[in-house]
Amino acid sequence: MSVYTQLTDDQFAAFCQSFGVSFARAIPITQGIKNSNWFIQTTDDTDGAPSYVFTLFEERPPADIEKMAVILNQLDGKLPVAAPLAVIESEAARTDNDKRYVIHYEDKAITLVPCLAGAHPEQTTQAMCHEIGAALALLHETLQALQPSEQYGVPLYPWSDVRDRESQFMPSDEAKLMRDIWHAYTQLPLATLPKGLCHLDMFADNTLWNLSLNNSQKGEARLTGLLDFTEVSAEHYVMDIAITINDFCTTWGDAEQGESVNFDRSKMAAFLQGYESKRPLGADEKRALPVMLAKAAVIFWLLRLNVIHYNRTEGRTGDNIMVKNPDLMKRLSAYHWSHVEKAQNTVFVLLNTHSNTDQNNQIVGVFSSITQAEQAREQLIRDQLTPDQLSNHSHFLIKEYTLDQLL
Ligand SMILES: Nc1ncnc2c1ncn2[C@@H]1O[C@H](COP(=O)(O)OP(=O)(O)OP(=O)(O)O)[C@@H](O)[C@H]1O
Ligand SMILES: N[C@@H](CCO)C(=O)O
Hints:
Blueprint: H1 9-18, E1 23-28, E2 36-42, E3 52-57, H2 62-75, E4 103-105, E5 108-114, H3 126-142, H4 149-152, H5 159-167, H6 172-186, E6 195-198, E7 207-210, H7 213-217, E8 222-226, E9 233-236, H8 237-248, E10 250-252, E11 261-263, H9 265-276, H10 283-313, H11 326-344, E12 346-352, E13 362-367, H12 370-384, E14 396-402, H13 403-406
Antiparallel strand pairs: 1-2, 2-3, 3-5, 4-5, 6-9, 7-8, 10-11, 12-13, 12-14
Helix pairs in contact: 3-8, 3-9, 5-10, 6-10, 6-11, 8-10, 10-11
The structure holds adenosine-5'-triphosphate and L-homoserine.
GO molecular function: ATP binding; homoserine kinase activity
Keywords: Amino-acid biosynthesis, ATP-binding, Kinase, Nucleotide-binding, Threonine biosynthesis, Transferase
Pathway: Amino-acid biosynthesis; L-threonine biosynthesis; L-threonine from L-aspartate: step 4/5
């Protein structure tokens, strides 16, 4: 359980009063690792179900949380988000454009948001991946209204500093893996890849779903909540896509399951189909995705090491501190990197098996991706064949080779 700061009932009552809510009871929330969260029952909650969630932001400065409130208001009505309640101000203090959503406690921000229905999924389905893909695209599109995006997002975390600190203590093969992925990322066309406000932490445990037995059996779980907007920043959309795919399309094994990491490519295809139903991806974004998946896993590998580092340096210990396993993200990084390396070492050869010039197959072209080879074959067929020959072009074959097979 992650409740880092203890508050008394009197403090809860006073803070809730600032938002016009009559406090009855605070129940600590067990999920979450960054902030302290409680469900709040009000004196009107006769059925015992809490109406609100009270969050004390342990890391982010209050100014960042104010930005988050603006973002949530922009999304409210389009996506299932919990927009923060406004602070009740005296008439004299209030102006229409000057709503405050945050109160302060020891230089930390507090918000009160409506409690959304639903539960965190223990596992995902292809249908859920499709739905979260569409939701993320809608989030990207909707937040384009807030310009310039850098002004509305929080600054990106300095992950390269964390990398430099942590890689000193890593076995050399792990440090090399991180370095190789980082280098491949810097080789992407970062200056031209589309950018805008991104969630950057859309993990399954930051989403809520209607998972009633009936719905799950019919494969009809519906998205009821998107949570935790503290990391919203201006970033490449394809990085946000990679972060979300990494969690939604992976089955994470616990210690008893040997900490297995099983990435499901059919779930990724469903996610991308959902995403592209709202926002089609550019060819450069598609090409960047394999490296982005590896880089996104590296970022969360570092994020988890960073949480352990700060828990240690700030003396935060005990049963109520939840830490996620960095090794799972390391394994996912290695998995994605092996795909990138395989793709880098693979070529697709277009062959004409009916060549007039030679008994052997004639090489028409060598391509770095299957898509490029297929496009070349289609072009060749269109350019060279008469319409009645179009039906018989099976002599153009594409074969996959690793580079060492060609030497
Ligand atoms: N509006 C809400 N409605 C229902 N439950 C909520 C709401 N807000 C937060 N929660 C619950 O509180 C948990 C923790 O919230 P949140 O993810 O914002 O905390 P966190 O400490 O920032 O977590 P993490 O660091 O894991 O992302 C959520 O996983 C969810 O179970
Ligand atoms: N989603 C993060 C937790 C903090 O945001 C993780 O899985 O490490």
